[in-house]
Every structure is written in structure tokens, then in C-alpha cells.
Amino acid sequence: MKIDIDAARLSEELAELARFTHAEPSPEGTAVTRVVFTEDDLRARAWLRGLAAEEGFAIREDAVGNTFIRWVGIEPDLPAVGTGSHIDAIPHAGMYDGTVGVLGGLEAMRALKRSGQRFRRSIELLLLTSEEPTRFGIGCLGSRLLSGTLDPQRADSMNDTVDAESQGTLSDVRNAAGFTGDLASVRLEPRFYHAWLELHIEQGALLEREGLPIGIVTSIAAPAGYRFTISGFGGHAGALLMPDRRDALCAASELILSIERHALAANAASDTSDTVATVGTCGVFPGAVNSVPSRVVLQLDIRDTDPARRESVMQSVRCDYTEIAGRRRVQIEEELVNADAPAQSAPHIVETLDAVCAELGISPKKMVSRAYHDSLFMARIAPIAMIFIPCRGGVSHRPDEHSSPEDIARGTLVLAHALARLAAE
Ligand code: HGY
Ligand code: MN
Ligand code: MN
Ligand code: MN
Q1: How many CA atoms lie within 13 A of 366 on its CB side?
Q2: pLDDT tens for each residue of 379-419
Q3: Residues near ligand 1 with C-beta < 6 Å?
Q4: What is the CATH number of the domain that holds 283?
Q5: 3-state SS class at 355
Q6: How many CB atoms lie within 10 A of CB 317?
Q7: Atom in ligand 1 nearest the alpha carbon of residue 223
Q8: I need a surface site. Which of 78, 232, 363, 386 has the fewest CB within 10 A?
Q9: Are residues 348 and 252 in the same domain?
Q10: 86 marked as binding residue
């Protein structure tokens, strides 16, 4: 089947979407910040709905703002084939993470429509809400709720960490954004989709290093998130003498290095790089140069292809921080944010992608995704796989994140062919 991807239009639309941002221009390139439910996010969503409406696709939004753009098939009651990703971007990020899957998915649907083909199954593009953990502290909020892996009440009570003064929660923020339904209504039944595919930049350097244009994701590593609150005893930076101190930031520093040490030890023991751990935020209270820190809040992101190994690293860290807390006379509280299982791609969907790549003369690389994606949760309710395209230097979550128009168009073409095969089943 002849399918033509309009690469120029897709590039223009990605550039247009990148302009919905509240990041300052940066020397490294087009910095994008588009936090969920901010003005920029809502304007970007409206713009995308406009593009979909131009094509006559059916559009609906659920109570958390997941947006469903459906090209109805010949047999509309059959489970549809789903594809999609996210458009929210962490602060000072790039313009391709997530957006390639949303705009690439839209272009794949438009290209199939232009080919004159009609399919048994509907094809549905999803814009999934809040894939990034920026605002509510947990990633994949929309796909967790869709797949029933996050309790709606717990979700609605999650604090808005971006506009902290407002003391708002997800419920307040989503209602203010116009999404007022009951979160429990978001959940989709298993097998709602016949198949699910997500096109995404690799966010690593393997494809580029091996000179391969397409990756087929066979599994997605298991992410977990923890919040640590270290409480000491503050005081005057001049008058409080060293022996009398219970410095929360010094204790937090030892905890951070313990986390790094145990992640490195796990990799040495397994002779892999499959364990990764990052303390990405560190809130210091009161945060004055001449005041001994009395409280510190850390957020830990730890991932592994093997959840049991991830847990054993956490056990080692717990032993360490119990010793640190005793020696430094501070309190260290651990709060679990999420601890998710890994996801496996469905063999049939992987075979479909293999067949498409063979048809197009592309040699794909089978690979693990170490970044998490909405597909990690869509895998709970549908057979999934992901298509990766190279990104320059493996850079992502930075303004200099880049994928070439050719790679994006090629990934979109593979997606379009795979959607066509699956929608004809
Ligand atoms: O962090 C992640 O893996 C995703 O890109 N939010
Ligand atoms: Mn991301
Ligand atoms: Mn992403
Ligand atoms: Mn992701």
C-alpha cells in the first residue's frame, strides 16, 4: 500500500507546537516548558483539536483531559487501534519528547486517509495528560487512570507542586482547566483497544551509535518514585556551633551519595547498566545562606528492568539512612510515590512492526526502553509495542534534544503501515 507522509507539514507542526511554551529562549536551542494544564498546555491542546477537526475526526476529552481523536472505521463497534503520546514538557526541555508520537500519529492517520484506504477498525489518536511528573509528582497520570492503575481519589488529591501557594490539588487544577467529570469515569475496559502503538524518540544514543533508523521496543523498564523528608534542627549559621548541629542538608547529601553508591553496586554485581537512580529535586528549608538547613525534601527516581533488583537497592539505602539518621540525630521519612512493574511488548505487535520494516527495507533494532512512557500503562489494557527513532547524541529533556525530519517521517511511515495492518485485522 502506498502511503505518503507529509514530512514538511509534520516538521512545521512540531515547530508550531514548540511555540506553545513559557520557557525563555536558550543558547542550547529551542527550550520548551509546557507543564500540564498551564495556559500553554491548554492553548496547545486547542490547536491540536483544531487540526483534528479539519480532518473531520471525532474528538472527545475525558475527565482528566486525555484527548481521543478518532477516525471511525467501517465497523465502528470493533475495538479500535490506538496510538498517541504526550505534549506536556518538563521545564527547559526539548521539542520532540512526546510530541513526535502525537503529531506523528496525527500525520499517520491523515496519510492513511489520503491513501483512500478505509479500515475495519477505527484508528484513535490519544493525547495523554501529564506524562511528565512535573506538576503532580507522578508520571503518566492520564494513562495510569485510563488503565486503572491509579486510584481516582488518590489522584484527585495530589498536590499541585507548580503553583504551591494555591495549595491546590489535581481536582482544583483540572476543574479550573475545564475538566470537571468524575475521575473514575476515565478508566477504560481491558481490550478497549485491539492494539496500541506509541512512536517516540529513543531518548538514548543506541540507534544513532549503531546507525539504525528504527527501534522496536520489546520491554519498558520499571520506574519507581520516592520522596524523602530529612528533618534536623536549624539555626544561626554563625552562632550555632558545629557539635551542636543537626544539619538536614548534610544528612541529605549522605543519603544521595548512598543511593548513587548502591545503584552503581547493583550494576557492578549484574554486569549491566540496568539500574539507574536519580535524585532530581532537593528542596532546602528555610533556604537562607546564613541559616542551618532544618528540613530537606528529596525526590528519588529509580528504575530497573528487574523490579526485585530495584527493591534490593532500596533495602540497602534504607539500612544506610537508618545509620545516617542515628549518627546525625535527624529524622528521615520515606514516602512511596510509585513503584511500577515493567511492561512487555506483545509478540504480535512486534511481529507486525517487523513485517512493516521488512516491507520498507528497514532493519530495526529490538531494544528496552529505559525511559518510561504511557505505553507502560496502556500495556495493562491492550497489547502494545513502541517505535523508537534516533535522537541526536541520545540527548533528551534538554533544549538541544533533536530528531531529524527524515527520522521523524520514517518513524511516522512505519507507524502508518503498522496502524493499517492492525486496523484491517
Ligand atoms: O522520565 C521519563 O522516562 C519520561 O520521559 N517522562
Ligand atoms: Mn519525558
Ligand atoms: Mn516522553
Ligand atoms: Mn515517556
Answers
A1: 11
A2: 999 999 999 999 999 999 999 999 999 999 999 999 999 99
A3: 131-132, 139, 371-372
A4: 3.30.70.360
A5: helix
A6: 23
A7: 3
A8: 363
A9: no
A10: yes
